[in-house]
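re the bet — no i am not wrong, look at it urself. input seq straight from the record:
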Amino acid sequence: MTRHIGKITGLAAMLLLGAMQASAQIEQALETSENKYQQCQESGRNVPACAARYYRETDSLLNLTYKKLRGTLKSDGKIALQKEQNDWSARRDAYFIKLKADYKGSGSAPANEDEADPKAAISEDKARFVRERIDELLGRIPEKEEEE
C-alpha cells in the first residue's frame, strides 16, 4: 500500500511541478494513467490490481482538478462548487453501490478468458465515471488561470 501512495504522491508532484498549464498537466497525467492501464490489460497480468490503481489515480486527479478550479473562483462560486461537488459525490456513491450490486452475481473470476474480471470491470467503470467529472471541471477552468 505504501508503494501505491508513493506513486500517487509522485503523480501529484508531477502535476504541481513543471511549466505546463494546469489543465494540460492533468490531461497528460490522465493519458499516462490510461496508457499504463491499457498496457496492463494487454499483458493480462494482475489486471484487477491495475484497474484499482487506475481508479485511485483518476480519483486523485479529480481532487487536483477540483482544487485548481476552486482556486479560480470567488467566495460565492466556491460555495456553489462545493454544493455541486457534494451533489455529484452523492450521485457517485449511489452509482458505485449500484455498480457493485450489478456485478455481485458475477463472482470474483471471469467465466472464460474473453470475459472481464468483475473486480477490474468495477474499478474501470468507477474510473470512467470519475473521468467524466474531471473533464467537466477542466472545461470550466478559465484560460487566464492556466497561463500562470
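see?? Residues 2-146 form one domain. told u. also The helical segments are 2-16, 22-43, 47-70, 75-104, 118-138, 143-146. so pay up
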